Amino acid sequence: MIVIMNPKCKDESIKEVKDYVEALGLKTHLSQGETFCIVGLIGDTSKIDEDKMIAIGEVDKVLKVGEPYKKANRLVKPENSIIDVLGNKIGGKNLAIMAGPCSVESEEQIVEIAKKVKESGANFLRGGAFKPRTSPYSFQGLEKEGLRLLEVAKKETGLPIVTEIMATEDLNDFVDRVDVIQVGARNMQNFHLLKELGKTKTPILLKRGLSSTIEEWIMSAEYIMAGGNENVILCERGIRTFETYTRNTLDLSAIPVVKRLTHLPVIVDPSHATGKNWLVEPLAKSAVIAGADGLMIEVHNNPAKALCDGAQSIKPEEFSKIMDKIKVLAQVEGRDIEGI
Amino acid sequence: MIVIMNPKCKDESIKEVKDYVEALGLKTHLSQGETFCIVGLIGDTSKIDEDKMIAIGEVDKVLKVGEPYKKANRLVKPENSIIDVLGNKIGGKNLAIMAGPCSVESEEQIVEIAKKVKESGANFLRGGAFKPRTSPYSFQGLEKEGLRLLEVAKKETGLPIVTEIMATEDLNDFVDRVDVIQVGARNMQNFHLLKELGKTKTPILLKRGLSSTIEEWIMSAEYIMAGGNENVILCERGIRTFETYTRNTLDLSAIPVVKRLTHLPVIVDPSHATGKNWLVEPLAKSAVIAGADGLMIEVHNNPAKALCDGAQSIKPEEFSKIMDKIKVLAQVEGRDIEGI
Amino acid sequence: MIVIMNPKCKDESIKEVKDYVEALGLKTHLSQGETFCIVGLIGDTSKIDEDKMIAIGEVDKVLKVGEPYKKANRLVKPENSIIDVLGNKIGGKNLAIMAGPCSVESEEQIVEIAKKVKESGANFLRGGAFKPRTSPYSFQGLEKEGLRLLEVAKKETGLPIVTEIMATEDLNDFVDRVDVIQVGARNMQNFHLLKELGKTKTPILLKRGLSSTIEEWIMSAEYIMAGGNENVILCERGIRTFETYTRNTLDLSAIPVVKRLTHLPVIVDPSHATGKNWLVEPLAKSAVIAGADGLMIEVHNNPAKALCDGAQSIKPEEFSKIMDKIKVLAQVEGRDIEGI
Amino acid sequence: MIVIMNPKCKDESIKEVKDYVEALGLKTHLSQGETFCIVGLIGDTSKIDEDKMIAIGEVDKVLKVGEPYKKANRLVKPENSIIDVLGNKIGGKNLAIMAGPCSVESEEQIVEIAKKVKESGANFLRGGAFKPRTSPYSFQGLEKEGLRLLEVAKKETGLPIVTEIMATEDLNDFVDRVDVIQVGARNMQNFHLLKELGKTKTPILLKRGLSSTIEEWIMSAEYIMAGGNENVILCERGIRTFETYTRNTLDLSAIPVVKRLTHLPVIVDPSHATGKNWLVEPLAKSAVIAGADGLMIEVHNNPAKALCDGAQSIKPEEFSKIMDKIKVLAQVEGRDIEGI
């Protein structure tokens, strides 16, 4: 960390900075020119409060040299993290394909979709039991009954379950019954939830917030990891921009960036990112080529009757065709899809 | 709600739309031209799922005519809501001034600041006990001890307390001890928390999410109100844009917009919006002129030593000068600041 | 176009709308319910001014049913436009590869790069002669001398030239000497320039503006086409968002969207979009998979010495390796790269 | 300017940086720690190309200490610039009120509006002769005839004219006939136009681009000033964000920021920023309180019949009422409105 001070600053201001920093166990290195005055900080700067530094009257800017995350940092752990979920691996050479409906609606529905997506090559079943909805008057999911139906589908197909948690009160239930716990975009900075998830060992799929920078997203992963749970999978699902044709703007650059900065696996959700089912195929394919470790795709047996998010769902037959193309690209890229 | 269909759509597609809508108890009105085919929906459209409508093959667009919120809607309740907090009113002609430090740090600190801001005209004491921080390694607040210190300061000054909740597990504590419960920007769509807050009667200060549209913000208020708690105060605190000079971009247009669409009081937090203490005065003043029902301002007795967010804090003497100017503008605008 | 009016509006307001519309030669179709009042417009709505409609007191919203562009619209011309540039085709099955330095710096530089990129499979030479720079104190390009050097490189290699125009005063020069005239992101809504380009027959590469919606981008193409020049190639180069890790956010969803809405070819510039040379490869590859009709890639023989934009340039050897991978993907997707 | 290098970088990389910088006449100051290696640059860094620095292999980041603009910089000229337009002053204590229709439509229209806005306290007449329109099929303005009609209105009322230029071909005409030449948001980075305007002495009103940072906006002013024309007035007119309720998001924070960074006058256009006439009053008032040196307001005698932008126009009577309130606030803030 480098502190840029006013070149004409008083000696006592510099001393104030040094005192604050040295009290935290760091060393400082002063460098003064005619047009600048720089204090370099040596040691573990993660305890330093940037805003506090700026609040010291004559500090102009504080420049972070390193990244603020430790456990997620690729510098700390150069090899890719590979997360094993009931024998299905996420990360490394593996391509995780998570497919299923937006909401679990009935046993018949979830079991039928689970069978079909497995047949086409999916190795995880996704489905919402607790649903975050903008309106309190919209369908909120089958809740606990939804979890039960996911378990039925898992029993029938062997596919591990991925589903979203909304409340820490449900955490024990999720740990017992769910294979990958999803944190939705709206809860990416629900720090209390992240801390509680950090106390478990269950793999966590952490969606990027609608307006979260890549650094904030990684810092949310760091919250979970700092608590002791290093099984974190990141999921890019589109960011909010001025463009309204697509629901969000899928930021595919984030894939190679996150893979350079961290050792965590990253998957892509083209269904939520675009909100349009005809965009799922081109973006799913592009995501694989950009280096994604997996895909999360909404599949519904009857999109028109889906209780939520029908516009972005595709039918099992369409999913099957997309998977055929994904398999070709996976081979070109040297990726394996477990289970096929 | 108006459904725009493909002008060459099949009769069965139109029937599918009508069937779905009529099953929910609404009536439809068909209007067909050469270049358009429109189905108008008559009745309570809040149950209609827009995405589901679009998923029906030949629906092009769904246009909401009314607003999706009911209890917050000014059409439903034309007069301004006025929320009474221990005799201090928020809304109507009143101007609520909430001031205090970002974080509660010690009894001495919080009591001293409380006394000073009261003297300058503040009628609420704000201070963070539980702090949402991007990094797990940053100071997370004094937590329960912070609540206790706020109570001490309240006892000394009589100022009602405003502080942020992070976890539903703390809700009983907050209901017992806090006068206005703040929901932070990052939790604006933590729907589980909103539902729990809806079961209480404590006034809720709901900050706008970093990338939340005005409609989403009002819908989050609607979650609380739908649960039975109509004591909601909205708080504009800047949105995330491409501009990085200020921490966020304060959206002052949102004030007159929200006051037109809803009957709820709206206040403005210029400290978090800009992240720079020299911007607090001009934006606090502009907010009052734009029609805000109050202000939330960070005041610290020693910004350089503040444990968080020092850069945006002002000292009590500066706050006092700002208040003098606010009082002049309040008079011009015909607003009252309670307690002075 | 559909006009939504206040359901309780006066008959004279409806008449005012009808009069305005019918005076422009369109017909209207009135549909009135209890909760809505809709006027459907039948005929060529491109003359209708949406803002003017809204200004009529009791109009709530104006909904465009069709798209506001005609000549660019795929509904008007369902087959892909293919633009022939000295025998090199852009659009259809062809993949156009435009490579070269950000700025033309010397004869030796441009000729050497041109030869190398041709060898690796590029079929167009790009290079800036007139440079748009944020600062008036930055290098502004070799200007006319730059055009001359591009011509030398073209003579040596046979590669058609793509270069950016900044001023209508230079138009004759460009028409005489340049094969594809580029309009930069900052000039995408320089309507005077677009109109002048519409009077020529030279192919125009129209970059998307930093904060332009897809519709605005297509409307700028429409300006050129409405003037008589239908040889327009669109180029996605990243949009401005809150994320600052990459210079801009490459919007790959825009590729399939634009190809659905229009018949024009679309290429992608991963160099400017990201500003980081190590992101060029993954995003160039993803762009091809998303359906792009070509790529524009910055290549420099010595990035560290480049007079501008060195950070995003790659060396000829790196370009060659990227092209090897692009060729594999082109084959998978059934695309041809002319000249190889 | 400070160059942050890889702490383990080779000596030759440091030498490469030093050589490049010293060749431009600057001095360097090296500071090396265990975890950082910093090269401070001493001298005029405006010639340094940041991207080029980064392109040198082992440079991590380049940090600008000073601002990249010189002539616009308040450090260079601490007192406010005051621009005199036919005796009406813009800047300093003065409040410039520019009012008039979006488009000039007829002699009767423009003369009538000019008289009315003057009566209410406007001291400049604004009106579009050349109109930037998203669609080539929309009304493009009366063009030269529009300029003539503005001159008629000026003769009748004495109000100086403000109108937008679209093409450098029209520059001589504008210099002869227009008092303040407006550069629209879409042309803010039309650098060729800016350079040509820099050769004149006519005051330039430079609107902020839709997605321009404050620094880019000031740099565009610097283009004009570097050419020799220091009569630049900045105009905030809203930026593009994700919020769609208002047409743009008015960034009022930009007012105090720009006034701190530069000595140039800054005015605000609430009409274009919001696109809604009922938002003009609260935002015009807030802008004055935020420190704006003036306002640009659309006024039309019959908004419903306006050929463009009717939705954001207000009628002369409404303008008159707004002006009454503005006058009260001007007095509170110690500002003068010339001519009243």
TrEMBL record, chains A, B, C, D:
Gene Ontology biological-process annotations: aromatic amino acid family biosynthetic process
Pfam families in alphabetical order: DAHP_snth_FXD, DAHP_synth_1
GO molecular function: 3-deoxy-7-phosphoheptulonate synthase activity; aldehyde-lyase activity
Coiled coil: none
Taxonomy, superkingdom: Bacteria
InterPro entries registered for this protein in UniProt: Aldolase_TIM, Class-I_DAHP_synthase, DAHP1/KDSA, DAHP_snth_FXD, DAHP_syn_2
UniProt KW keywords: Transferase
DAHP synthase ferredoxin-like domain: residues covered: 1-65
This protein's record includes keyword Ubl conjugation: no
Domain called DAHP synthetase I/KDSA: residue spans: 91-328
The keyword Transferase appears for this protein: yes
EC number, UniProt record: 2.5.1.54
Enzyme class: transferase
The protein, known as: Phospho-2-dehydro-3-deoxyheptonate aldolase AroF
